[in-house]
Amino acid sequence: MKRSRRVKILATLGPASSDEDMIRKLWEAGADVFRINMSHSSHDLMRTLVQRIRNVENQVGRPIGILGDLQGPKLRVGTFVEGAATLHPGTHFTLDDNPAPGDETRVHLPHPEILEAVEPGHRLLIDDGRLQLVAERCDGRSILTRVVSGTKISNKKGVSLPDSTLATGALTEKDRADLEAILEARVDWIALSFIQRPEDLAEVRKIARGRAGLLSKIEKPQAVQRLAEIIELSDALMVARGDLGVEMPLEAVPGIQKQITRAARKAGKPVVVATQMLESMIAAPVPTRAEVSDVATAVFEGADAIMLSAESAAGEYPVEAVATMNRIAERVEKDPTYPAIINGQRSEPEPTGADAISLASRQIAETLKLSAIVTYTASGTTGLRAARERPAVPIIALSPVIETARKLALVWGMHCVVTEDARDLDDMVDRACRIAFREEFGRPGDRIIITAGVPLRTPGSTNMLRIAYIGSDGLTGI
Fold it and tell me: Active site includes 35?
């Protein structure tokens, strides 16, 4: 089964979508990759979900990607004597290291790293920004703040720090345990939450040792400021608009989304746009017009994937949400303005042989109106380069490595097929034509273009282009 769109759909699994039959329905509706949120999943549940996804993969005969999303540091205030406190703008309120229950004047902040990092003038946002404080005096053990807006604070509410960079890394002890479990379950992508700097990726890379791709969630101002460095050390990115919209002005988020998607595309790294894309479909069978426009904008921008969170995990209409997102994406990609917008965002290739081959394959395929670009890729690098060009013709990625095919399920335009490695150049051409015909990308007499590396089975050596006809029997390249 091939998709009628290039952008991929990432669906989060949860209480509404955890059984095998529902996962199959979500895939049939259009989901290409499934997200397991470790904030709400035990190791046993995660392993069960992975097995169910793999069962569906075997049933449908298509590689399916799995993203394990680490929780990251959850910063929260302590508790209050009466469960909550009422504050007033202009008054003072203290966060300190005293574990005693709080009141209208103070509360325990069980995070010494925050007490040490915050400086006068820094903002502290409580409960997703509903309460805004500004630090006036800090001594390493307490922070005296002034209430800027909001009136209520209650037990265990979250704390966001848009101006402060914490000394601790992005991995908590829970994350380390979850990471090991995810890797043992052979999950394809790992999403790292609340990163602030490139160094936050180092520990995960050391533990993962290439066993899974590393996706950096951009959801803090500090990460936006060091975006280029983070992109360089990441395998993929996510525009996590929920927390970005808390820690940065809401009106800045659309521009940041464009900045991240274009920077990632220039670097040839997959980029996912996430959070509240079809939020109303948690409780309604149809989305709002604004949500449809939001999804369409991400598709027009050339994002590799668009993501559903609570819509598919806990909503009342998970299948309908995926199907709706699928229909929106298909319609946008058929819009007459779509090619010009996608082409207008195309960046110059890097001065390497592999990039030159990918550029040439796109230009030849579009000029000669070929049926498909077929790329042989063992590590996935050749496939990523082909997708970076955003060609107007389909891309078929052939790989002997199932893990590579699953990772590429997240990448724009990739139709991944697991096949044995070619024995020689003739077998490479025959196999490419046979699969293009079988997967319904071409008919007898159609032409395809093939990219690969010679000598064969040499990673990172993309250096060959070959145009081939699909034979009259639909099976043999001539």
Answer: yes
